[in-house]
Design goal:
Elements: H1 5-16, E1 30-38, E2 45-53, H2 62-79, E3 82-84, E4 87-89, H3 91-95, H4 101-117, H5 126-143, H6 148-156, H7 158-178, H8 187-194
Antiparallel strand pairs: 1-2, 3-4
Helix pairs in contact: 2-4, 2-7, 4-5, 4-7, 5-6, 5-7
Pfam family, one: DUF4112
Protein name: LALA0S05e03334g1_1
Transmembrane segments: 82-108, 128-152
Length: 195
């Protein structure tokens, strides 16, 4: 972590407070997995943690899983592709340097990610759609502030937030369809039919 990153992180903390992308700082792109690693020479084992691309939950059908994968890929490029002084930023951070034109391009690219998310089976419910549009509008509005707005926009990461919103929506949607309770016969009805 570079020395220059401390003032930037302090400023972000003052502007946003303790902002989370999801619960417990959930990463929309990667997950940490543990596996057992065995030493070649001694045969001893130890638990090792490794980061890998976040898997698509099994309950989500392939068509929606492909859309979620494409949305994740685009959002990653736009929000997190590069790493400098301990801060991750993407193409939106680079494009945002251009005054006004850059902000309009950022808005257009973010709306492209949103349009891709709309392709899920059955579309997006109004609440989820409004949440995603609010993230984009807030990012655009903050980005219009000269100099500071670009930094705030890089920290806010609207597209990454929208990936989490879409993923949570799909998990809720398909967990309901899979875990439907099996109807059990009512004992009163059985007794009435026997009489």
């Amino acid at each position: 972590m570079g020395i220059a990153s401390y003032p930037l992180k302090y400023l972000a903390k003052k502007v946003f407070g303790e902002v989370e992308l999801g619960s417990a700082f959930e990463d929309p792109f990667f997950e940490e997995v543990e596996f057992e690693k065995r030493s070649f020479w001694s045969g001893s084992t130890k638990i090792v943690k490794k980061r890998r691309d976040k898997s698509i939950p099994e309950s989500i059908p392939d068509t929606d899983g492909k859309i979620l994968r494409r949305v994740r890929k685009r959002a990653y490029r736009l929000d997190m592709k590069f790493h400098l002084f301990g801060i991750r930023f993407g193409w939106l951070g680079v494009i945002g340097i251009l005054p006004v034109v850059g902000d309009l391009m950022i808005l257009w690219l973010s709306l492209q990610v949103y349009q891709e998310a709309l392709k899920v089976t059955g579309g997006l419910p109004p609440g989820v759609s409004a949440q995603m549009i609010t993230n984009i509008a807030l990012d655009f509005g903050l980005g219009l502030i000269p100099i500071v707005g670009d930094f705030v926009s890089v920290c806010y990461k609207a597209n990454s937030r929208n990936v989490l919103v879409l993923e949570k929506h799909l998990k809720r949607k398909y967990s309901r369809t899979i875990t439907r309770p099996v109807a059990t016969p009512n004992p009163r009805n059985r007794l009435a039919s026997e009489i």
